[in-house]
Amino acid sequence: MLPSTEYVEAVERTLDSRFSFKCHKDVSCFNKCCHNTDMLLTPYDIVRLKKRLGLSSTEFLKKYTYTHIDEQSSHPFAVLTMSENEGGACAFLTPGGCSIYEDRPASCRYYPVGKGLMIRDTETGPAPVDFYFFIRQPICKGFDEDNEWTIGQWREMQGLDVYDEMNREWQEIQLRRDNPDKPKLDDQKQSLMYMASYDLDQFRQFVFQSGFLNLFELDAAEVEKMKDDDVALMKFGFKYLKYMLLLEETLKIKDEYKKEYKPS
Ligand code: SF4
Ligand code: SF4
Questions:
Q1: Does some domain include residue 192?
Q2: Are residues 103 and 226 both part of a single domain?
Q3: What is the pTM assigned to this prediction?
């Protein structure tokens, strides 16, 4: 979620940080947090939601999201569209709650906790380290309830392990690029970044129906898996992003094309 920063606590928390919270159907604010909110999506959110809704990624993104370009990093993000009627409700909200609850996005699962990633000095040198914070919106009365959690317990209860594991590499790519020393992305790179991050079905066409497979030395088993496995394709997309954004030589061009092609 991209909460209004006025509600984001400035204090950094850890997995052991404790808080009292309970969200349930009888709470006076039930469903209020699912209105007028900027819910940023991750690649694994799309994998889950397209499957859940039986849509292609292209159809899902067109129907349910808009694109936000981050001013500082110039990176493109897919954000859930809220309806213009019904008080700005999320398209998946019903009177009984979230209609896609089992596949709801990672940001919805974390709320009212937020998670960030930052480069820190560690025993083995600078490395990306997770940090957490609370989002205390006045509309949310869950903090008045007396169920006590650590952030680690909340994370586990919300089924976030798999989401964090799947999205980690992508979040590290964002972090490595989100640096004043890095040039802003041009339109073409923004489109490629968006496609490899979110529009898996279009990325599959790009990989399988262009000269891509001829250009690079690729593992045959990995290529075979990507044909119909979205998670395998998503992970290959992260590899492609590192190469395309000049972060790592994750792909190798075949010798015969080396003179002709260089990512710029
Ligand atoms: S996806 Fe579900 S939990 Fe998330 S904002 Fe929409 S209705 Fe609420
Ligand atoms: S506003 Fe807070 S307590 Fe109310 S439904 Fe949303 S998360 Fe639950």
A1: yes
A2: no
A3: 0.93
